[in-house]
Write a structure and sequence with these properties.
This protein has about 375 residues and is α+β, with helices and mostly antiparallel strands. It folds into three domains: about 90 residues, Uridine Diphospho-n-acetylenolpyruvylglucosamine Reductase, domain 2 (2-Layer Sandwich); about 120 residues, Uridine Diphospho-n-acetylenolpyruvylglucosamine Reductase, domain 3 (2-Layer Sandwich), CATH 3.30.465.10; about 160 residues, Vanillyl-alcohol Oxidase, Chain A, domain 3 (3-Layer(aba) Sandwich). The chain contains 13 helices and 17 strands. Strands 10, 11, 12, 13, 14, 15, 16 and 17 form an eight-stranded antiparallel sheet that branches. Strands 5-6-9-7-8 form a five-stranded antiparallel sheet. A hairpin with a 5-residue loop joins strand 7 and strand 8. Helix 1 runs antiparallel to helix 3, helix 8 runs antiparallel to helix 10 and helix 8 packs antiparallel against helix 13. The longest helix has 17 residues. The radius of gyration is 22 Å and the shape is globular. Flavin-adenine dinucleotide (FAD) binds next to strand 3, helix 5, strand 9 and helix 12.
C-alpha cells in the first residue's frame, strides 16, 4: 500500500486530527528523555478511545508496521525510540480515570492519565497511590506500568508493580486480552499481568489498568540531614536501615547535586554541605515520633552538622520539588549528561559512593550523585 493510502486509512480509523506524518511533527516522537539515539517514525497516531486503539493496532498489524507506544516519552531506556518508518502510538488521548472505587480501594485508569494528577484525584477521596517517580508531573500511568517505575517513596511503599491488580491490553494483532482481578486475592492461573509490568511496550499495549489504592498515613515528619563528610553520610543510610526504621523516603544528594539544584530551584539548600539526606517517616503518630527520634539520634551519632525538621507542608514540598528537579538541574551544567541508574545492596551504599568519588578523581570528571539511598539506588550523573 502506498504511503498516501496508508495515511488515508489511518485518518479514517483515528481521525484526521490524530494522524501525524509530516517530518516536523515526526521529529518530536523520534527519541526518549535520554536522547542518545534518534530514529524517525513513519507515522504518529493518537487514538482517543479503546475501540479506535484496537482498530489502529490491527491496521498496523495488517500492514506489517512495527508499533512503538509512547506516553510522555520521559523514559531513559530507549523505550519510545521507534523503529525506522514505524508507527508511534501516543496514549495522551487515552487519559480518563474510568473508576475511583472507595469501597474496594482501587482505580481503573486509561494509560495516558498523568501520574501526579491521578495521585491528586486519589488524595481528594481520602486514599493514597504511593508510586511517585521523579517525573510524576508529566509521566503517564501506562509508562509507569511499562517501566515498573519506582519513586521517592519506593523504600517503604514499593514500585508500580506492587499496585497493579489487573489490566486489559491489546496484543500485536489488536485482540483484547484481560488478566488479573479486582479482588485482593487472585491466586490462580498464570501471572500474565506480572509479565506485562515492566515489558516496555514489547508484549502488549495497555488499554486499562486496575490499580490498588491504600489508606494514607495518618502522620508524617520531614527532616533534612546535613553532612560535612560524604562517607559519613552514606554510612548513615546503612545505620538507619539496620535500626529497623523504614522511612517512606531516604534520598541522597552530594555536593555537586546540591549546588546544581539550589542554583536551579532556590529552595535554600546548604551549598557548602558535602551531602544531605531528605528523610521522611510516616505512619501512626506514635510510630512517627519514635522513628523520627531514632533517625535524629543516628544522624547525630554519625556526625550530621545539622538536622532540620520541616515546620509545615510548604517548606517540605519546596524541598521535595527541588529534589525532583535534580536531573534537570544537573543537565544544565554542561552540554552533555551521561546518566546512570545503579543499585547495590543497601549496606554497600558507602562502597558505591566511594567508588564514584574515586572514578571522578581518576578521570577528572564532574559527577553529581543523587538518588534513593534507602533502596541502594543511586544515579551518578557525569556532566561533560
Ligand atoms: C526527570 C526525570 C525523573 C525520573 N524519575 C524517575 C523515577 O524516580 N523512577 C523511575 O522509575 N523512573 C523515573 N524516570 C523515568 C521515566 O519518567 C519513567 O520511566 C516513567 O514511568 C515513564 O513514563 P512515560 O509516560 O513518560 O512513558 P514513556 O517514556 O512514554 O514510555 C515508557 C515505556 O512505556 C511504554 N508504554 C507507554 N504506554 C504504554 C501502554 N499503554 N502500553 C504498553 N506500553 C506502554 C513505552 O513503549 C515505553 O517502552 C524519570 C525520568 C525523568 C526525565
Amino acid at each position: 500500500m502506498s504511503r498516501q493510502s496508508l495515511v488515508k486509512k489511518f485518518q479514517d480509523v483515528v481521525g484526521v486530527e490524530n494522524v501525524f506524518f509530516e517530518e516536523a511533527d515526526l521529529l518530536t516522537y523520534s527519541y526518549d528523555a535520554a536522547p542518545i539515539e534518534q530514529v524517525m517514525p513513519g507515522f504518529v497516531l493518537r487514538p482517543v478511545d479503546s475501540e479506535v486503539l484496537g482498530k489502529a493496532i490491527a491496521l498496523c498489524s495488517d500492514n506489517n508496521l512495527p508499533i512503538t507506544v509512547r506516553g510522555a516519552g520521559s523514559n531513559l531506556s530507549g523505550g519510545t525510540v521507534p523503529d525506522p518508518g514505524g508507527v508511534v502510538l501516543l496514549t495522551t488521548g487515552l487519559n480518563k480515570i474510568v473508576e475511583l472505587n472507595q469501597e474496594d480501594l482501587l482505580a481503573v485508569v486509561q494509560p495516558g492519565v498523568i501520574t501526579a494528577q491521578f495521585a491528586n484525584e486519589v488524595e481528594k477521596v481520602g486514599l493514597f497511590y504511593p508510586p511517585d517517580p521523579g517525573s510524576q508531573a508529566i509521566s503517564t500511568l501506562g509508562g509507569n506500568v511499562a517501566e515498573n517505575a519506582g519513586g521517592l517513596r519506593g523504600l517503604k511503599y514499593g514500585v508500580t508493580r506492587d499496585y497493579v491488580m489487573a489490566m486489559d491490553f491489546f496484543d500485536a494483532e489488536g485482540q483484547l486480552v484481560k488478566t488479573g482481578a479486582r479482588t485482593v486475592k487472585c491466586a490462580s492461573g498464570y501471572n500474565l499481568g506480572g509479565l506485562l509490568v515492566g515489558s516496555e511496550g514489547t508484549l502488549g499495549i495497555y488499554n486499562t489498568v486496575t490499580l490498588k489504592l491504600i489508606p494514607p498515613p495518618q502522620d508524617r515528619r520531614f527532616m533534612l540531614a546535613i553532612f560535612e563528610s560524604i562517607h559519613r553520610a552514606s554510612e548513615t543510610v546503612a545505620r538507619i536501615i539496620a535500626s529497623k526504621v523504614v522511612p517512606a523516603t531516604l534520598e541522597f544528594m552530594d555536593n555537586v547535586t546540591i549546588r546544581a539544584v539550589e542554583d536551579f530551584s532556590k529552595a535554600g539548600l546548604p551549598v557548602d554541605a558535602a551531602a544531605l539526606f531528605l528523610i521522611e517517616v510516616d505512619g501512626h503518630p506514635g510510630q512517627v515520633a519514635d522513628d523520627a527520634e531514632t533517625v535524629r539520634r543516628i544522624c547525630e551519632e554519625m556526625g550530621a552538622r545539622d538536622l532540620k525538621v520541616a515546620t509545615d507542608d510548604r517548606e517540605r514540598d519546596a524541598i521535595w520539588a527541588a529534589r525532583r528537579a535534580a536531573l534537570s538541574s544537573l543537565a544544565k551544567l554542561r552540554p552533555t549528561l551521561v546518566l546512570e541508574d545503579a543499585t547495590v545492596p543497601r549496606s554497600k551504599t558507602p562502597v558505591m559512593v566511594q567508588a564514584v568519588d574515586e572514578i571522578a578523581a581518576e578521570f577528572n570528571l564532574l559527577i553529581g550523585t543523587f538518588g534513593h539511598a534507602g533502596d541502594g539506588n543511586l544515579h551518578p550523573h557525569d556532566s561533560c
